[in-house]
Write a structure and sequence with these properties.
There is one protein chain. The chain contains seven helices and 15 strands. Strands 5-4-3-2-6-7-8-15-10-13 form a ten-stranded mixed sheet, sandwiched between helices. The chain has a five-stranded mixed sheet with strand order 1-9-14-11-12, with no helix packed on it. The N and C termini lie far apart (41 Å).
Length: 262
């Protein structure tokens, strides 16, 4: 079975020649402390409805010595997309007057704003390039639990894409059962705490390496064993399973201040 490689290099300064192409989706929760770094990595930036409010209100806080208007004009999203029931009218006008596109999809009440944004990115990306696309989502964790569950569900709806949900504290991504996985651990920015979770169905056979408490053909399910509060012990964690698994790892505090000053 093909091995899928993963890393958290998007939490480090961009390096020319990276094989992955990043896109950024901003949801309507507080921007993480490393949001400008994610922005620098991304080639396309989308605000999901009220995410535009967050960008407008909060991005100047990262640059307190600069004029807020100048900062806002430097951080213009490529697109605002969603139900448009949360974005403030003055903010929508501000961004669209500066060249940002806006797509109102209030007719579709069966999918979340994140789903709409991921679908848009999927449709933009040729099939041959989807394996190189990595979508970084801010504001997906925290707030109402039903919103969090809906965002995690999007990972399953688009299991053929790399989608990473980010908060100040951790990241979450899907490890599809169609691949074996090697997760390269950037120890300066993530870890050591981590977890592997089967959501929606049991995982009857999961084997790992690189963890303090490795799994050896282990069965996991809600109502039974889950691999939570585990610890990475090496530079690479390998995962093989007969079910899709959620991988989560903690994000260390402090690295972003150096990145923003450099």
């Amino acid at each position: 079975m093909e091995v899928m490689q993963h890393s958290s290099s998007f939490l480090l300064p961009p390096i020319p020649g990276s094989s992955l192409k990043y896109a950024m989706v901003i949801l309507n929760q507080r921007l993480p402390r490393f949001a400008p770094l994610l922005w620098d990595h991304a080639k396309l930036r989308i605000c999901a409805d009220g995410g535009a409010n967050r960008l407008f209100d909060e991005i100047p806080q990262f640059f307190p010595l600069e004029n807020p208007i100048d900062v806002r004009k430097r951080y213009i999203p490529d697109l605002i997309k969603g139900d448009m029931d949360s974005v403030r009218a003055d903010i929508l006008d501000f961004y669209t007057n500066l060249g940002c596109d806006a797509i109102n999809e209030s007719h579709d009440q069966d999918t979340t704003d994140l789903h709409k944004c991921i679908s848009h990115l999927s449709n933009l990306t040729p099939q041959s390039e989807k394996s190189d696309l990595c979508i970084l989502v801010t504001g997906a964790l925290g707030g109402r639990f039903d919103h969090e569950a809906g965002n995690i569900n999007v990972l399953y709806r688009f299991s053929n894409l790399r989608v990473i949900l980010l908060s100040d504290d951790c990241l979450i991504q899907l490890l599809p059962k169609t691949h074996h996985h090697e997760i390269h651990i950037q120890t300066s920015v993530v870890g050591p705490h981590c977890g592997l979770l089967p959501i929606g169905m049991p995982a009857f056979h999961t084997t790992t390496s690189g963890l303090k408490w490795n799994l050896n053909d282990t069965e996991m399910m809600f109502g039974g064993l889950l691999s939570t509060s585990n610890i990475v012990t090496g530079d690479i964690v390998s995962v093989r399973s007969d079910a899709d698994l959620i991988w989560t790892i903690s994000i260390k505090k402090g690295h972003e201040s150096h990145v923003l000053q450099s």
